[in-house]
Design brief:
Number of strands: 22
Strand content: 15-25%
Mean pLDDT: 78
Strand order of the largest sheet: 1-2-3-5-4
Shape: elongated
Largest sheet: 5 strands, antiparallel
Low-confidence stretches: 1-6, 116-130, 163-196, 293-297
Radius of gyration: 35 Å
Oligomer: single chain
Number of helices: 12
Amino acid sequence: MAALSSPYATETVSRKGLPANQLAASGARKFVRALLTERAAAPPATAGPGAPAISSELIYTAVLLTSELVTNAVMYAGTDIDVTCRLEHGPPPDPGTGSGPATVGVVLEVSDRHPARGVRGGVDARTGEPGYGLQLVSALSEAWGVTYRRSVKTVWFRLEATEGEPVSPSQLPAAEDRAEPQAGPGRPVAGGPPAAHAAEWADRGGPSFLAETSELLAGQLDQDMVTALAAQLLVPRLADWCAIWLSTEGGGRQLSRVWHVDERRIAPLRADLERDPPREMFRTGGTPWPWPEHAGASPAGGSALAFPLTARDTDQGVLLLGRAGQLRMTDTVVRMVEDVARRVAQAVHTARQYTRQTTISLALQRRQLPASLASIKGVDTAIVYEPHGEGQTVGGDFYDVFPMGVRRWCFLLGDVQGKDPEAMSVTGLARHLVRLLAREGHGVESVLGRLNLAMAEETAEALEMGGEQAGARFLSLLYGELEVDPGVPGARCTVASAGHPPPLHMFVDGTVEPASEPQMLLGIDEGTEYQASSFDLRPGETLLCVTDGVTERRCGNWQLDDNDGLIEVLRDGLGLGAKALAEHVRRAAHDFGTGPVEDDLSVLVLQALLPTVEPRA
């Protein structure tokens, strides 16, 4: 459908570039209400002496529908929004016949610029019917439609002035208040019968509104985000303001969210509510809220109804809906709000469960890796570590650099088979066992041999108990020692690789060669003996250690390390410091493939520093 065009006198006013955030709908409401209220008080000369006046009911409906469309655009498009208001004044009645009544039409257009957006919120995929926002538009407007032009989508609706009470000067807000509507869906903006539309909207749009609520709250894993979304869903659709209290572990209440159609009233309303938090659990929806005596009728909040937030027989909090005047709800509306409250409570419960599990997981994961790398005199160290699992700080890869006396340091980089919590448990066990063996005086070859024996025994026990190969855990490990001689630049390095990508030794001229030979994974054969390689890491030279998340990064059928690809990446970083070189390798791994990294990614760089030259006096 194309937007309606009018042969009569028109006046067009636009508000361009509303930002796609929680204030967009408020800004749109301010714009529409201020414009229509002004035109109602002082009609233009083109309207003619017989033209009907813009009523308070028309202003209210225009503000509400504009708010609905802007809210949908913010949620589903996420671009700047334009709001255009066009007033159409028809000709006055024929003086001779009295036919052809004059008309005043109001056309509102809401436009967004999301190029790939369909009519999201326009048609419900489950029912084939218009979504909640457009159901309201279709029910309350004379005509409506959706137009597309290039990357701009516009939803428009048209209202016509009816024979009725115009807005009187006493009903108009003061000049400083004209920018913001003072009422919600249950009460016309400038007077009139209370709650005239709420029940009708609940009947027409209730199922779609509940589906939209479920869709927006689904997957939200932060309880504050849940309450923020819930408040903006309910205001101004069902009330002037909304407040949500959440229960705390100590049995108290915490005010999580307060939202009002007039942002200027949020602070005083929050202050009124925080003075006297709810002390009892509300078990029945639509219970009048007991304002404290010192607040009276609460000039900031008016009257309110309370709805319990209960999920799995557990008290999650209280939802308040309020209005500046007397708030009344029909049974239909109460039932719909109770359904919304149940969805909010379940979303809060889910978010809290996730937060609790995440906190425990992070606390356990922090013990798997060292808090920091030991500082080695004369050698610069850097680590890049990216666990693959979403929300994890530790995966199957692990690393460590720790001192063994004054002149000796140990370093390791390992990878446990798998990425599940069982792999993380092996990660911590292996790291601490290596430290223990090193402190008992075992060298590189002995540490690998004893760790291999422990892993093999663990694998055998797992197979006996589970009888499945899944119980086996294998480990690849690169382990080495650096010995520094005071007064001599560089370090003596001893390193061995057990099933791990071999470390790469880069010389100052850019020559690169493997620093150790590949050997058997740990945990497969308890009788395996491991051999270490020793060499000098001279000033300016670099030792690069990576896990297979780097070497096996894929691009189609190719891996990054095919045809000595990692050597080329290292050579391209010649002249970089340790931290910059580690980041260079990480970026090269990400850039090699077009898809996401499918494994933990770890890079450890050890770089012997050039001696500093003391300036001559």
